[in-house]
Amino acid sequence: MKRKTLKRFSVLFAAILAVIMQSAAASAASVDDQVPYRSYSYWQDGYENTVVLNKAMYKVKDVISSESLNTSAFTQLSDMCVGPDGSIYLIDTDAGELTVISAEHKVLSRISTFKYGDEGLTLTKPRGVFVSEKNEVYVCDTEAERILVGDIYGNVNRILTVPDSSLLPEGFMYRPLKIAVDGKGYTYVLSDGSYYGALFYNPSGEFVGFYGANSVENSIATVLKNLWNKLTMTNEKRSGQVKSLPYQFTDLYIDSGGFVYTATGVVNSGSKTGTIRRLSPGGTNILNSNDVKFGESDEARKSSGEVITQDISGLCVDENDFIYAFDRGLGNIYMYDTGCNFITAFGGGVKAGTQDGVFQLPCAIDTYNGDIYVCDANNLTVTVFEPTEYGKLVKQAQKYTIDGDYDSAKPLWKEILKLDKNCRYAYVGLGKAALAENDYENALIYSRKGLDREVYSGAYEKVRGDWLNKNFSWIFVLAVAVFGGAVAALVYKKKKGIVLIKNRKAQLAATAVFKPSGVFGEISEKKNGSVTAAVLIMVLFYISEIVKNDFYGFAFSSDDVSAFNSVIVLVRSVGAVCIWTVSNWAVCTLFGGRGKLKDIFIVTCYSLTVLIISNILTTVLSNFMLPGEAAVLSLITTIAWIYTAVVLTVGLITVHDFPFGKFVGTALLSALGLLLIVFLIAATIILVQQILAFAATLFYELSFR
Predict the structure, then answer these.
(1) pTM score > 0.85 for this model?
(2) pLDDT digit string, tens, across residues 657-690
(3) Does pLDDT of 26 surpass 60?
(4) How far is Cα 701 from Cα 519, in angstroms, rounded to an integer?
(5) Where does 3-155 show beta strands of DSSP type E?
(6) Closest Cα partner for 673 from 573, 574, 589?
(7) Residue 344: how many CB atoms within 10 A of its CB?
(8) Are 200 and 248 in contact (CB under 8 A)?
């Protein structure tokens, strides 16, 4: 008996031990995937961007520092490059030194004095380094206004100085910061303070000119201002004007195909778009990024509330043409594909990064054999990231999808969705695969989940076409029957004198948009307007706006339904009607208008009937039409707004007894009054919030004393 009991306890103990070991193994596996930063991307839907967390695509493989290299400390790292063999080249600006590290992360050399024949050359505040495919080392000796070209042992075979060329503008300062050389020997140099673009040299070393400068964005207001200044300013004032200059490049990179990519860094507080470009041989942007806002969707803030300026200062491109760029302010690394799709973001640190994988001040980025190398100027480290298994899957699947190999991408996307339901590009990729297989039902499902309206429209066109072909006969018969029935009902109603609405006030509310002059005249003279009917119409208008927002066709909608706020719609519809009524009454009373507050409210609400019909009609049609037919919806909406304006104009002229010219003047003043009232309401709300916040703070302070 004792033996059986002991045996049972042994089995139970073994089972418990097995469970504990399995849990520990699972825990260890999960720890391997843990990273000290958020990995996320933006799901863009029209003008709305929603940040969505996803599984980490990259994790820290190694952190290289002077301590790990067992060498003397660095002082100020400013640039880094990874050579064709995986060797790492670091520039220490303050020390005036080039450090070469092997692919195994061992120090090969630390060079502060280069040899040029029998002459020794000492670096003076170098800022940039590049290694060509032929293992030639280019060092930007910035303060000395030269570029040294040599080998990893410090032997210099030639020096690039300021070109002797008439193409250089007068007073041009040659202070090289960055350099890149393509496989054919063409050299591109960024000079500090130069907004002309990169200095461009041919393989013979001859300066050819400037390449790919940014352009100055001109708005209509800027053009008009410049024209006015030309017409009115004297030569003295004109000479004292400060001209807007293009932003200079902060980094450049040459991909495996020889294309030059550039980063612009901090730009103005306006659009902040196009900070990453891919240039053609002629220097024009061929990345279709002019309208793309790289990095964060909105201004980033610290926990203290301080705004962090977006600064996309450096970039690199891997062998599959994925773009990696870093933000000096946030420390984030952003990953994009060739379509400028935001794949993921990782890193971070917000200038206070102390853990491995986050940064204080990233200054350079490069890629080698699938890994990402990031140099931190403040931490004095080089962090090496390697893709996780999930990251490898996403990159491979996205590459297949971009290349149109949907058969190869499909199983990968399905596997990715098992690992992360938040991967938008998995839905997009599966939608494209389904469309290629003529599986239109699944194409609609996946493309809608992935917010891909292009694929959705292509699939829906096929589905709609097939449905119409099968059901055209009975649809045609039904349409004829409905039309014929409606005509017959109208004829019968008129012949028999049937009155559907017997209440006179209700009749006027229903027919105001068809006979505005007569209806509003009767309302003004006989006071037959109904406030109840007006309120009902206003409520229906509010409901129609909500219906339009929630049920508008996916192919046409551009707003994130999850971010919909019914209160905002209420203010935009009901609030606008009420404020307009008050503003128009206040203005027209001063100018002798006869209309009372009640009359203006009734006229305004009755005029909304056309917009209600338009909202319902366009919402229904949008669920059956394609983006190519959007002109029909725009036409209906435009006609509705114009007709509403006409009805409102007739109504206000009638109730106020104004001539048309006087009406136009009072209408403009009413619009200004509406804006003023909105401003006062907003200012009051802000003031109340501040008072309440002050009162709460005071209460807490007194409570803890």
Answers:
(1) no
(2) 888 888 888 889 988 988 898 888 888 888 888 8
(3) no
(4) 63
(5) 40-45, 48-53, 58-64, 77-82, 88-92, 97-101, 107-111, 113-116, 119-122, 128-131, 137-141, 146-150
(6) 589
(7) 21
(8) no
